[in-house]
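Retro notes - structure team

What went well: the batch runner handled both jobs without manual restarts.
What didn't: labels got mixed up in the shared folder, which is why I'm recording both outputs here explicitly, each with its sequence directly above its tokens.

Job 1
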Amino acid sequence: MIARHFEAKKIERIIDKINEFEERVPNKINTIKTKNSQGVLGGSIQDAIDAFGEAVLAEVPHQQIVRYLQHIKEFGSANFAFACRQGETFDVTINNDTFALTGGPAGAYLHTDVWEKVFYAAVTLRDKKAIEQLIQVPQSVFDNANLKADGFDTAFINLMKGLFEPEANMGDLLEAALIAADPNAIASGRRSYVQHILLPLLPVYRCIYTANAEDEFNEAMVEALEAHKRYWKKDKREQQGWISLPLIAAASHAYDLKGYQLTVETDYIPDFLVKNDVDATAA
């Protein structure tokens, strides 16, 4: 069992935070709708991630957990559509509210890290439309983000996109990401995150795309979970560390593509999400 590094002493406080998020969502949507606000749109992604982490820790009903995962995907997909469709008016649906936005210049909330988190939510939800939209986001969007992508960021994004591109050579994409992972080429302030959160995903995906590698896949998942736990121990109250979106998505993809079963028990990966068993288990 790989237990969560954080244990809430008063679960009521976590529930209060979840309820506060619920109360803010309609106001967020109203501001996005009336002010065509990409800033609120992008800023809401992390709020939804935090609510998702809180909901998993608090063990709220499964349908509520999935709803927050949908919020990550909905705010995030709309955020990147805003940047990609400058000058176009297009419809978005967030929290069952459909309305029009007009794309325009944007720089905030467009870094590859943000894209990855939205992508993980879409993969876990098995939302093919959102996945297709996200893999169409061009490199120019990341190049124009306030936080610029480096060589590893670009290689890693290409690897993630390749998961759903039939013509992609996953071996080549994995090799490119490994080559680009030179620590000296990664900004010092970001190096620990890359080494603990992103790099451990490479052997996980290599196993998914290797024949008869379920045992090795599980070994790689254990190593990635332990790295996740080491990284987030230093920021125990960061809600996004209470779960692992990257590893939830990887386990879901392995389950769908290869039928791989995760053998390690862990607080970081809800099993019902991996198996897409929401309706049957929702409380």
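Job 2
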Amino acid sequence: MSKDLPHTRKWVSDKFLADYFGVSRCTIWRWTKSGKLPPPERLGEKTSRWDFDQAATAPLEKKSA
């Protein structure tokens, strides 16, 4: 008997995504504004976070180190 567990979202910051993609935080916001990244969820007055799974599968190329 197996039970399906609900999917747990991993919320990440603009800094985390900038490090992940090898770009600046400004680029993360620019990509968001242009629609290349999904919009973040507002978790507070000054707190925005992206769903990592959605952001990581956005049609962007990760920079090579």
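One thing worth noting from job 2: The chain has a mean pLDDT of 87.
We'll revisit the folder naming next retro.
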